[in-house]
Specification:
By secondary structure, the chain is α+β, with helices and mostly antiparallel strands. It has seven helices and four strands. It has two domains: 38 residues, no CATH class; 131 residues, Alpha-Beta Plaits, CATH 3.30.70.1290. The chain is elongated, with a radius of gyration of 25 Å.
Length: 182
């Protein structure tokens, strides 16, 4: 802040007028105003999917509910808009909306890394818990957001009919990713 820089209790604006530098002072005020009035309007929906290490079925129903609640709370605390989160015994689906300063990689680092730390700290699993390094992320059109929410919401029923591997292979094909088997 510029106040208090001039002696004898004069404000910066009064001193600027007296010294003939009003144009400079106004220019500085305009720059400050423009910096703080810029407000980007961004809505980028991303459907994220990640799995437990080696796709181990470690996320029992009770553990899942605790982990999903924690992911939502952690996201909120870190400024990540987690719109919807759900999953099954070996994976998580998450619908997020990015803001101007966020990247998919950073969000996943915060959500996956912190949640695995939290799972281990709270001894939710009998063995050491880890997420797989890889993940799936695709953009979602505004008109498709409700369909993705419904898809994520119905994971338990969905996986009574289809394995995660089958779902994964279908996603890879649908979105044009190269299937890497081996």
């Amino acid at each position: 802040m510029l106040l208090g820089l001039w002696p004898e209790g004069q404000s910066n604006s009064a001193r600027a007028i007296q010294s003939g530098s009003l144009d400079l002072y106004n220019s500085i005020l305009e720059i400050i105003h423009s910096i703080f009035s810029i407000m980007p309007f961004i809505k980028i929906w991303i459907h994220l999917v990640w799995a437990t290490k080696k796709r181990e079925p470690l996320l029992t129903k009770d553990i899942r509910q605790q982990v999903f609640k924690h992911i939502r709370e952690n996201g909120l605390a870190k400024g990540i808009h987690v719109d919807f989160v759900n999953g099954y015994v070996d994976h998580v689906h998450c619908l997020i909306s990015l803001n101007a300063a966020q990247t998919i990689a950073k969000i996943l680092q915060l959500l996956k890394g912190e949640s695995s730390f939290w799972i281990n700290k709270n001894n939710l699993c009998k063995e050491h818990f880890e997420w797989q390094d890889e993940y799936f992320a695709v953009s979602v059109n505004e008109s498709g957001v409700n369909a993705v929410r419904e898809y994520i919401k119905n994971q338990e029923a969905h996986h009574a009919k289809k394995t995660f591997q089958k779902e994964y292979d279908e996603f890879m094909e649908k979105y044009g990713f190269t299937l890497m088997k081996g």
